[in-house]
Design goal:
Helix content of chain B: 25-40%
Number of domains of chain B: 3
Number of helices of chain B: 15
Strand order of the largest sheet of chain B: 1-14-12-13
Number of strands of chain B: 14
Number of strands of chain A: 16
Radius of gyration of chain A: 35 Å
Strand content of chain A: 5-15%
Strand content of chain B: 15-25%
Shape of chain B: globular
Order of helices and strands of chain B: HHEHEHEHEHHEHEHEHEHEHEEEHEHEH
Number of domains of chain A: 2
Strand order of the largest sheet of chain A: 1-13-10-11
Oligomer: heterodimer
Distance between the termini of chain B: 86 Å
Structural class of chain A: alpha/beta
Largest sheet of chain A: 4 strands, parallel
Number of helices of chain A: 19
Distance between the termini of chain A: 16 Å
Shape of chain A: elongated
Structural class of chain B: alpha/beta
C-alpha cells in the first residue's frame, strides 16, 4: 500500500521535533555555561555577607576593615589571644608596612595603617613588647597616630633586617620585591607574616647566605637569586606564588598545588588597587589558617584566579565530612568586592566527590559530550549519504538510521555500512497496482536482525529519551507508598513506565505500522494489529537494556543524579540507548528468523 | 536531496532556538515575579567573626533560619541555589526533627525556614523570594515542603507566591515520621536501615541526630516513656532486612525496658549520655559500621555516626537554653548538609561544658607545613545572648592550630 504524503510529513516532523528538542536541550548546556559566566544577584537582600566557605571583613573603608581584622585576629579575651605590640605604618607608605610584616610572628604583633587606630575596639589593648622596652605600638618610618592608649616607639623599616638577624629565629629566606609595583610586592605580605621571612627591595639588603626569591618582574641578577616567581600580571603572579614550591628548599612557599596530598586551603581576597587592604592579609596569615593573597575587581573574580581556585576544589573520598575544607577571607564591603564575586569563590572550593570532582566538567562529562558529538556527526553524515546515494531506500529506514546514529555515538556509521554495503534485490512492490519496483538489500539473518533493531530502537529509544526529557524537565512524579510495592511509586520507575507506554504507542502508530504495511502490502488498519505485539516486545527488550543501565548509572554510578541541564544526562541516556540496541538485537534476530519482521529494507 | 537539506536546516535552526531559550522558559515559569524586600541585617554576624569562627543568626529563630539559608545558599548561580525550601512551625520539636532529618538531604537540598500560626513572617517570605528554589526533579519539581499542621496552614500563601508545594501532616509525630519515611523511601527506592531512636518524652538529647541526618539522610523514629508507638513498629516492619537502631540518651532518657522492646525489631546501639551536650560530644566521635544486608555476590554495609576524632574538622556550636530555645538550633542542621559538613556541639551562653571541651582537645590542630596544615572551623549559632562573644573567642582559640588551648 502507499502511505499518504501527509502521513510521511507528520512522521518526519515528529522525529524532527524530538531531535530538535533533545539536541537543543543538550546545546543549552554549553550555552548556559557561556551565559552563566556572569553571576547574578548583585541586588539581592542579605542578612549578612558570609557564606559557608568564606568570611567577610565588612568595612566601608581601610580603617574600618582593619578594625574588624584586628578584633578577629586578636580578640584579647583569654589572656593568650591579645597582641604584644601594634605596628603602625603611614597609610601612604605601603612599602614600610610591607617591610614590617616580617616582624609579626617574632613580636606577636598586629600591623595596621595609622588611620586604623581610631577604628580599634574600645577595649583593645596590647601587652607591650619586651624587646622594645614594653612599647605597645611601633611607628614605622615616621608614622603618627592620634591614640593615647599605646606607649609608642619609632622604628625604621631599613632596620628590620638587622633586627631580625639578631633573633634566635632569624629569617630563613628573603623575598625581593619591586617598590614601585604594589600589586605584586604585597603578595609577599602573608608569607612574610606566616614564616618570618624577610622582605627586601634591593639585593644589597639580603642577609648573607639566605636564599632570595624574586617576585614578579623585579630587576635582579638572575645568578644571585634562587628562583623567580612571576606571571604576566599580578593576578597570574598571585597564582604562581600560591602554587609555588621549591623541591630544593621545601621550607619556602605555600605549595598550594595539585601535588599536595591533602591540604586545607585558606585564601585571602582583597580589592585591587588598595595596597592597605592587601597588607591586612599579613595579620590573618599570622594565625596559620588564612594563606596567600589574591586581588579582585569589584564585580567578578579574574578568570585565571577563579580557574586556580577551581583547581584547588576540595574533594572527599568516602563522605564529605572527612574534609579537606577550604575557606576564603574577603577584605572590604560589597562596594569593594561584590557578593556574587564572593559567591564564585565559595562555589569554586565547595567539597565534592573525588570521582568527577564535584559538579564541574569532569572526565565523565567529557566522555558524555564526546559521545553526543560523535552521534550528531554520524547522524548528519548518514542523512546526507543516504539521500545522495540511496534514493531508493524506504523513507522510514531513511528516517530511522540518522535517529539511531544520533544516539549510539561512534557506532552508527559502522552499523550503517554493515547494513548497506550489500548486493541489492529488486522486487515488485506488493499491492501496488502500478507495479512499482521495491529495492531491498541482500543480507544474512544476523544483519537483517540488526536492521530490524535499527528501526525499532532508532524510533523507540528516541521516543523514550524524549519523553524522559519532558518528564524530568517538568518534574518526575512521585507516589509515596507504604507497602512492599513502594518501588512502583519511585520517580525513576514511574519515568520508565511512562517512557515505555509512550514509546510503544508512538512507535506503533507512527513508525512501525506504516513500515509493516509497506513491507507486506497491507492496509494501515490491517497492519495495526500485526505490528502491536512486535512493537511491544521489541520496546520491552529495549527497555530491559535501557532501564537497568539508566538506574545503575544515574542512581549509583554517577555521584549526583544528573539533571536534564547537565550533559551527563544526555550522555547517559544515549549510552543506554546503545545498550538497548544490543539487548534488542537478539530478539529482532528471532523475529526475522520467524519471518515476523523484515530486515531487508 | 534538497528536501534533506531543508529538513536538516529547519532542525538546526530549531536546535539553536530551543537551546537558546527553551529550557529557560520552562525554568522561569517556576520563579515568582515578586521581588524580595530587605532582610533584617544582622550586624553582629559581620562584627563577630574570628579567623576560625563566624556567628550566624540572632536570638530570634526566624532570623537565625534566614541567616543560615543566607550562608549556605548564596543563590548567585544555579549551583549555589537550593532545590527546595522546608517550612516548619516553631511549636513542635518532634516535627522539626522529622523535617530536618528526613527531607533536607539530597536530592532535595533545602534549608529550613519558620512560619507562625499567623502565617509567613516577613523575613521568611523575603528569604523564600531571594532563594528562588529550583524545584526537586525527583518529586515533580516541588519547591517548598511544608511539614506539620502549622506550616501546612501557610500552604495557600506559599502557592499564591507561585511556588509548587508538598505538605506532610499526620495525627502525631510518630505517624508524621512514618508518612515522611514512606515518601523519602519511595523517592530513593530504598529504606534506610540505620534508624535514630528519639524519646518523644525527652527529645533534646536526640537533637544531634538531626544534624547527622541532614548530612546523611538516615532514618528517624520515635518512642515514648511508655514504649513503642504503633507507627514506629510499622516503620520497622517496612524494612525487609530489619533496622539498626541508634538510641540517643542513657537510661534516664530512654528507659531500659523500652530499649529491650526495641531489640525485638533490630540491633540497638545507645549513645549513653544524660543530656544534649553529652550526646553531642559523644555522637560527634561515634561511628558504627559493619554488616547491613546482602548475599555473597552483593553486600551492603551499614554506617552511622560522624566518627570524628582528629584535627581538620568543624563544629556547629549551639545553645538550646538561649532565648530562642531549640527553635534557634534546628535550622543550623543545613550547615551539616553543605559546606563544612560539621557535627553539632552544645555549649552554654557563657562557657564550654567540660564534656565538649575535652572533645575539642582531641580535635585541636597543630602547626605543620602550610600545604598540609589541618584547620578547623566553627559556626556560632544565635545572637550574643545565646552564645556570648567571649565564648565565641574561647572556641576560636580551641580550634586554632597556633594558639594554646585555653584552660
Amino acid at each position: 500500500m502507499r502511505i499518504p504524503g501527509w502521513f510521511k510529513v507528520m512522521a518526519v516532523a515528529l522525529a524532527g521535533l524530538m531531535v530538535t528538542v533533545l539536541l537543543g536541550a543538550a546545546l543549552s548546556v554549553p550555552i548556559r555555561w557561556i551565559q552563566g559566566e556572569e553571576p547574578s544577584g548583585y541586588e539581592q537582600p542579605r542578612a549578612h555577607y558570609n557564606t559557608k566557605n568564606s568570611t567577610r571583613f565588612d568595612g566601608a573603608n581601610l580603617a574600618e576593615t582593619a578594625g574588624s581584622v584586628a578584633r578577629a585576629v586578636y580578640p584579647g579575651t583569654t589572656g593568650t589571644n591579645a597582641p604584644d605590640v601594634v605596628i603602625f605604618y603611614d597609610d601612604a607608605d605601603w612599602q614600610a608596612g610591607l617591610a614590617a610584616t616580617s616582624l609579626l610572628r617574632p613580636l606577636n604583633g598586629l600591623l595596621l595603617p595609622a588611620s586604623a587606630a581610631a577604628s580599634l575596639p574600645e577595649d583593645f589593648s596590647a601587652g607591650g613588647s619586651e624587646r622594645f622596652g614594653g612599647a605597645q605600638a611601633l611607628l614605622v618610618d615616621g608614622a603618627t597616630i592620634d591614640d593615647g592608649r599605646f606607649s609608642t616607639q619609632e622604628i625604621a623599616s631599613a632596620g628590620i633586617g638587622p633586627l631580625l638577624e639578631e633573633d634566635a629565629a632569624a629569617p630563613q629566606h628573603a623575598i625581593l620585591v619591586d617598590e614601585a609595583d604594589a600589586a605584586t610586592a604585597i603578595l609577599a605580605a602573608p608569607w612574610a607574616a606566616y614564616s618570618g621571612d624577610l622582605i627586601i627591595y634591593d639585593m644589597a639588603e639580603a642577609p648573607a647566605g639566605v636564599p632570595v626569591y624574586a617576585l614578579g618582574d623585579v630587576e635582579a641578577d638572575e645568578n644571585e637569586i634562587t628562583a623567580r616567581i612571576g606571571g604576566a600580571n599580578p593576578a597570574a603572579t598571585a597564582v604562581k606564588f600560591a602554587a609555588f614550591e621549591d623541591a630544593a628548599n621545601p621550607l619556602f612557599g605555600w605549595g598550594f598545588n595539585a601535588n599536595t596530598l591533602t591540604g586545607y586551603r585558606g585564601f585571602v581576597i582583597a580589592p585591587e588597587g588598595e595596597p592597605g587592604m592587601g597588607l591586612l592579609s599579613a595579620n590573618l596569615a599570622r594565625r596559620g589558617k588564612p594563606g596567600p593573597l589574591f586581588w579582585t575587581p569589584q564585580k567578578e573574580l579574574p578568570q585565571g584566579v577563579y580557574n586556580y581556585f577551581f583547581s584547588q576544589r576540595a574533594a572527599f573520598w568516602v563522605t564529605p565530612s572527612e574534609g579537606p575544607f577550604h575557606h576564603f577571607y574577603i577584605l572590604g564591603d560589597t562596594q569593594a568586592i561584590s557578593f556574587p564575586a564572593q559567591g564564585e569563590a565559595d562555589y569554586a572550593v565547595e567539597i565534592g566527590p573525588y570521582f568527577q570532582k564535584g559538579a564541574a566538567a569532569g572526565p565523565l562529562d567529557l566522555l558524555a559530550a564526546a559521545w553526543v558529538l560523535f552521534g550528531v556527526a554520524s547522524a548528519l553524515w548518514i542523512a546526507v549519504h543516504e539521500s545522495k546515494f540511496l534514493p531508493v531506500q524506504n523513507w522510514l529506514m531513511k528516517l530511522a538510521w540518522p535517529l539511531l546514529a544520533l544516539m549510539i555515538g561512534p557506532f552508527g556509521i559502522f552499523f550503517y555500512r554493515l547494513a548497506y554495503n550489500r548486493p541489492i534485490i529488486k522486487k515488485k512492490m506488493p499491492g501496488d497496482p502500478r507495479g512499482k519496483m521495491m529495492v531491498m538489500w541482500d543480507r544474512p539473518l544476523w544483519l537483517q536482525g540488526l536492521v530490524a533493531t535499527a528501526s525499532a530502537v532508532g524510533f523507540g529509544a528516541l521516543i523514550m529519551i524524549f519523553t524522559g526529557y519532558l518528564v524530568t524537565l517538568f518534574g518526575m512524579p512521585l507516589i509515596p507508598m507504604q507497602n512492599n510495592a513502594f518501588l512502583l511509586g519511585t520517580p525513576m520507575i514511574l519515568v520508565m513506565i511512562i517512557n515505555y507506554v509512550v514509546a510503544v504507542l508512538v512507535a506503533w502508530l507512527v513508525f512501525q505500522t506504516p513500515m509493516m504495511a509497506t513491507m507486506y502490502g497491507t492496509s494501515y488498519g490491517d497492519a495495526l494489529g500485526k505490528a502491536f505485539p512486535l512493537v511491544a516486545a521489541s520496546m520491552a527488550a529495549a527497555a530491559v537494556g535501557m532501564n537497568p543501565s539508566m538506574w545503575w548509572l544515574m542512581m549509583s554510578k554517577i555521584p549526583m543524579m544528573p539533571h536534564e541541564e547537565s550533559i551527563l544526562w544526555f550522555g547517559t541516556m544515549f549510552v543506554t540507548a546503545f545498550i538497548a540496541f544490543l539487548v534488542a538485537w537478539p530478539l529482532n534476530y528471532y523475529f526475522v528468523r520467524a519471518q515476523r519482521k523484515a530486515g531487508l529494507m | 536531496m534538497r528536501n534533506t537539506w531543508i529538513t536538516l536546516g529547519v532542525i538546526a535552526l530549531g536546535i539553536l532556538l530551543y537551546g537558546w531559550q527553551g529550557p529557560k522558559l520552562v525554568e522561569n515559569a517556576y520563579i515568582p515575579d515578586e521581588k524580595p524586600q530587605e532582610l533584617p541585617f544582622l550586624a553582629a554576624n559581620m562584627d563577630d567573626v574570628t579567623v576560625n569562627t563566624a556567628r550566624i543568626g540572632s536570638d530570634d529563630p526566624v532570623e537565625t533560619a534566614v541567616a543560615v539559608a543566607n550562608i549556605i545558599y548564596p543563590a548567585t548561580e544555579p549551583e549555589n541555589t537550593p532545590g527546595a525550601v522546608i517550612l516548619i512551625g516553631m511549636d513542635s520539636l518532634a516535627e522539626a526533627m522529622v523535617a530536618t532529618s528526613r527531607i533536607q538531604h539530597f536530592p532535595v537540598n533545602a534549608p529550613i525556614l519558620y512560619v507562625t500560626p499567623d502565617g509567613i513572617p516577613d523575613p521568611t517570605r523575603n528569604e523564600l523570594l531571594r532563594l528562588k528554589p529550583e524545584g526537586v526533579p525527583a518529586d515533580r519539581n516541588v519547591q517548598v515542603y511544608l511539614v506539620g499542621e502549622t506550616a501546612a496552614g501557610a500552604n495557600d500563601e506559599v502557592e499564591a507566591m507561585g511556588y509548587k508545594t508538598r505538605t506532610f501532616t499526620a495525627g502525631d509525630p510518630a505517624e508524621l515520621a512514618l508518612v515522611v519515611d514512606n515518601w523519602t523511601s519511595t523517592q530513593h527506592g530504598d529504606h534506610r536501615n540505620e534508624v535514630v531512636i528519639a524519646n518523644l518524652d525527652n527529645l533534646p538529647p536526640a537533637i544531634p541526630s538531626a544534624f547527622w541526618n541532614a548530612h546523611r539522610g538516615d532514618g528517624l523514629a520515635f518512642v515514648t516513656d511508655e514504649g513503642i508507638p504503633e507507627a514506629t513498629k510499622e516503620m520497622f516492619r517496612l524494612r525487609a532486612n530489619g533496622p539498626w537502631l541508634y538510641v540517643f540518651g542513657d537510661e534516664s532518657v530512654v528507659p531500659e525496658r523500652v530499649v529491650r522492646e526495641l531489640a525485638q525489631y533490630g540491633h540497638v546501639t545507645r549513645m549513653p549520655e544524660p543530656d544534649v551536650a553529652g550526646t553531642s560530644a559523644f555522637f560527634a566521635g561515634f561511628h558504627d559500621e559493619g554488616k547491613d544486608w546482602g548475599a555473597w555476590f552483593w553486600e551492603k554495609p551499614r554506617g552511622m555516626g560522624w566518627g570524628i576524632a582528629e584535627a581538620g574538622h568543624n563544629g556547629i556550636f549551639a545553645n538550646i537554653d538561649g532565648p530562642g530555645g531549640w527553635a534557634n538550633v534546628l535550622p543550623a542542621t543545613t550547615l551539616s548538609h553543605m559546606g563544612k559538613h560539621a557535627p553539632v556541639l552544645f555549649v552554654n551562653a557563657d562557657g564550654v561544658p567540660e564534656r565538649v571541651a575535652s572533645y575539642l582537645r582531641i580535635l585541636k590542630p597543630y602547626p605543620t607545613a602550610p600545604r598540609q596544615q589541618l584547620t578547623n572551623h566553627g559556626w556560632i549559632i544565635g545572637g550574643e545572648e545565646t552564645i556570648s562573644w567571649n565564648t565565641q573567642t574561647v572556641l576560636d582559640q580551641m580550634l586554632d592550630p597556633y594558639l594554646p588551648f585555653p584552660e
